[in-house]
Each structure stands twice: as C-alpha cells, then as structure tokens.
Amino acid sequence: MDSNPYYAAGGFVNAAAGSPYGAGASQSPGGKGKGGGQQTLRPLTIKQVLEASQPHPDADFSVDGVELGSVKVVGVVRNISTTATNVSYQVEDGTGTVDCRLWLDTSTDDSGKTDGIEQDIYVAVVGTMKSFNQKRHVSATTVRPITDMNEVHYHFLECVYVSLSARHPAMTAGGGMAAPNGGASGSYAPGAGQQQAGNDRWAEFPPVARSIMEVVSTEGAASDEGLHVAEIARRVGSSGDEMMQAIEDLISDGMLYTTIDEFHVKTT
C-alpha cells in the first residue's frame, strides 16, 4: 500500500466546483513552488499537517512542494482545554490528531467564537500551521461546527484532488482528469492495477461498486479499521460524488459496514 494514502487520487472531476469551500480552496497548478500557497486556503488531512515539510524552524511549511498559507482541517473534537488566552481543541479525522488553538481577545471574550463547539462533534478549522516545542498545531482563526455531513465527505475528496493537482498539474488541467486505463465510460473505469480476472464475486455489480468491493476486500482485510474513503478514492479512480453514492449504497445493501467512524469501511 502507498505510504501516503491521502496524497493522490485518480479520475476526479473538479471536486472543488461542488465543494462547500468554493473555488478558492483549491491550489492551482500554477501556484506550485515558493510562495504559491500564501494566497490560498489549502484543505488538508491531519496526516498531511503532521507530515508537512519544514526545512528549518523559521521556514514555511509545505505539502506537495507548495508552501502553505491558510489551511483547513475537518474532524471530530476529542478534547477541549480552556485557558485565559485561548481554547485548544484536540481534533481527530481518522488520519491523525492535532491541536487547534483558537485565541481569545480577553479572558471574558463573548464574541461567540466558541459557540456550538462541543466534544465529539465535527468541526471545520481554518488557520495557519505553527510549531512549538517541536509539536505542530493549527493556530485557528475560525472554528465552526459542521451540521451537514456532506461537507466532511467533500473535504476529504477535495484534499485528494488538490494534492493531485499540485503533484500532476497536467493530469488535472481543465478541471478534470482522464480515466485510468483509457476506460470509455470515464467515471466507471476501475483503478489502475486492480486485478479483474479470476474474481467474479461481484460480477453483476455496477463497475464502480465492483471496484470498491475489490479494493476494500483486498486492501482492508488486514486491518480491523478497514479503509478510509480517501484511500478508496485514490485506488478506484471514480468521480467523487459517484464513488460516495456507491459506498452509501453498498452500506445500505449490507455489503460494507463502517468501523471506527463514518469514513472507514470493511466488507461484511
């Protein structure tokens, strides 16, 4: 399995276009290199936050060779710690855990910055990456509760797409990417490297559903957690909306089930 499972994907149409983050969330291919990310809002998984490059303590952080300005992470609040100057939220997204610190104007700040933020709810955090005592955190400008779970799905898909755009701009030029293996139907093309012969267990399934079942049964078998949807997207190579709908249908039909959270699945 790829050592960086949330860094690449195949087959996506422009996920940013249908995303609640808007077009400004995507890193344009032309932004690659020094200073390219300073004017953009980069969606990241927490794994990417923790593994971002920083050549020396005073240098900017970068992911996929692109320097980071503002970043956005989405996850569940696992712990809340309040001091006179800030509120620290421990946020976990299935790929890792990071502290997100929201600074208060005064010890009696009543500006509403923390309204609705409770333990065990999903939040969207926007801020900048910092490091203190060799531990990374996000210095948050906003933390808000998420009420529509579609935003969580879109965030993970957008993380994959934006990372691919930075790594392989020619493949995503024009807002889309050609289907792997030259598949005629595009969004139904099975992921590169998937073994189609000799496995007829899901022969009657639609192509996307079949590819999902093959990936999850093969790659997710060794772990009780199964596979994260971002890794499934990387391997299947289908459009984001179609893949998520197929996963939901497979769960409803009893072919897949969720494990540690809504974004990890295994075969039944």
Automatic annotation (TrEMBL):
Q: Name a GO molecular-function annotation.
A: single-stranded DNA binding
Q: Which Pfam families match?
A: RPA_C, tRNA_anti-codon
Domain Replication protein A C-terminal per the UniProt entry, residue ranges: 173-262
Which residue intervals define the domain OB in the entry? 71-146
Localization in the cell: Nucleus
Q: Does the keyword Nucleotide-binding apply?
A: no
Q: Which GO terms describe its cellular component?
A: chromosome, telomeric region; DNA replication factor A complex; site of double-strand break
Report the source organism: Naganishia liquefaciens
Q: Which SUPFAM superfamilies match?
A: Nucleic acid-binding proteins, Winged helix' DNA-binding domain
Coiled-coil spans are: none
Q: Which InterPro entries match?
A: NA-bd_OB-fold (IPR012340), NA-bd_OB_tRNA (IPR004365), RFA2-like (IPR040260), Rfa2/RPA32 (IPR014646), RPA_C (IPR014892), WH-like_DNA-bd_sf (IPR036388), WH_DNA-bd_sf (IPR036390)
Tell me which family the UniProt entry assigns to this protein.
Belongs to the replication factor A protein 2 family.
* Gene Ontology BP terms: DNA replication; double-strand break repair via homologous recombination; nucleotide-excision repair
> What PANTHER family does the record point to?
REPLICATION PROTEIN A-RELATED (PTHR13989), REPLICATION PROTEIN A2 (PTHR13989:SF16)
Keywords for this protein: DNA damage, DNA repair, DNA replication, DNA-binding, Nucleus
What name has this protein been given in UniProt? Replication protein A C-terminal domain-containing protein
